[in-house]
Request: fold
Amino acid sequence: MSGSTNRYTVPPTVTVLTMMKARLVGATKGHALLKKKADALTVRYRQLLKEIVEAKNGMGDAMKGSFFSLAEAKYAGGDSIKHTVFDNVDRATLKVYSNQENIAGVKIPKFESVSEPGETKMELTGLGKGGQQIQGCRKAYLSAIQLLVQLANLQTAFITLDVALKVTNRRVNALENVVKPKIENTIAYIKGELDELEREEFFRLKKVQKNKQKVAAQDLARKEAKAAEAAAVYDNGAMQDSASGITSADLLTAGKDADLVF
Reply:
């Protein structure tokens, strides 16, 4: 887009220029902060991806071992293994708690598996038929469940972080490629208009000063013409008086006038 369209429609005044400069400073700071946030999210995103790959690789071995342990328990305990497990379980010994983790301002759900302490009836299961295999199966499935919880935690954090990272990158790109260039073009437009107004004002002042000087010169020439005209009139009057023989000295040295008789 051209510079005339990629800018805000604002009046070119000093106040608006100050406002646009303040907005540019704010946009620059916001861009820097969002860039740092995007970098932090990217680092954590890659760490989660690596941990997910490792957890999935370990999940296959854990589930395979759990199913083998279940097969061994069924083989050793027979069909009564189901009733044996149900009779010895009255409460959950493994519980999952959820909380939140803050990564660069992004709240990510976090799941954690906790084994409840205390004695259970399953500890006495080994006294009966196939009890040792049942205990081994229980431990294998406990490890598998803990790994499942860890994998669920990583997958949820990965998806949440992926959405937040996309939003942050869009904001960074918008500030970098749309908002800041638009504000900079607006500032350049206002500065150009103010410079043009300043040149016009300077030209107007020069024109006014030139007109004043012209009027003053005309007034001076008029006054000089009047003074020359007055001097010429005075010189003409003096020449006429000298031609008629009347001078100022004659008026002062003339004899006494004759007396008037009434």
In short: The mean pLDDT is 79.
